[in-house]
Amino acid sequence: MNSEFEQVEAELQARGFTRYVFDLGRIQELLDVLGSPQRAYPSIHITGTNGKTSTARMIDSVLRAHGLHAGRYTSPHLESIRERISLDGVPVDEERFIGVYKEVSPVAELLDARNDETLSYFDVTTALAFAAFADAPVDVAVVEVGLGGAEDSTNVLSAGVTVITPIGLDHTEWLGDTLEDIAMAKSGIVHAGSTLICAVQPEEAMNPILDRCAEVGATIAREGTEFGVLRRSVAVGGQVLTLQGLNAVYDEVFLPLHGAHQAQNAALALAAVEAFLGTNVHADAVREGFAEATSPGRLERLRSAPTILVDAAHNPHGMAATAHALGEDFSFESLVAVVAVLADKDVAGLLEQLEPIASHVVATRNTSPRGLAPEELGRVAREIFGPERVTIEPSMPDAIAFAVGQAESESSTGAGVLITGSVVTVADARKLLGRK
Is 172's pLDDT higher than 90? Predict the structure, then answer.
């Protein structure tokens, strides 16, 4: 790794990797001085509780299949910060990242000196993404919200097309402890004259979304009414879909991702592309784009014999989707789950979704300083699974090794291991098991 790039990473980390400052005025000022790069291209803006990154990656892939140069900004990353900023489907290289940082950082430091609190890690990486997209230049930016919506740093876009994926309870310490509060925060990315592509939501979440659209005069297209999944069937390496779009029906769409939740994400992505391109959507390009879609860390297979899967589910809503997909798309006789979570998550709720499908749980720790102690995770797991189905292994390599042995002892032909609980957990496992 380039030592200069390492220095850039260190300077960004020093701004506080998990520090959130909800003040759009600060990043707006930074972008104004930089020449408002976010105004150099149209954008598609995505929020929700689960599925944001997968949906963003699908939108990106389908747009590129239509011949557009797309920039994509997502978070968090699995291995390198460069993954957050992609041009034409590829993370920016170190040289380009350093170059954009040299343009942005002096301005950020100047503004830091004027204010009581410095710009955050996410503020600056967002500015880097918008500047990189303008420099490229891109035809369209696909941008995932970092946290919430209304006060998120990305909400300087006023995007013409917005997407809200399924909403559940998460980040309650910042967004509120009801679905209504969370939906209200997330619907803040909907601006005057925009088109919102909205997943099916609980009524408590849907009402504030509809209120926001009415307030700003936005058009809303709802899953299950204007678009959706008509049919899906499990296929080798993924699934085959028939999708009802805003303008047409698209059949024989192969998606190399598992689960009904990914089919739902595909329907959202298709509708967003249709809203953006209008009548310039071609069925062959739609099929090509979805066939090329990837979503690392989302029911991703790292090893075979036994099968080792990683999944970034980190809240009950996401784990429920993962559990359903495992039961539907895989036929494990025995599934052992290696779990490491962050301390601020609904651990019991997450484990309750795992209990029907996992024969055994191995409680461990990931590399995040916010990680829950394995002993505490194990205590909660034993209350749900029973003591005989839970093992505590503080070291993740030892936890994975134990899980493989346990799975193989339970089944000689249909054994599987799932490593889950956090994006950090998935990143750690991918590094340990050699997946780039």
Answer: no
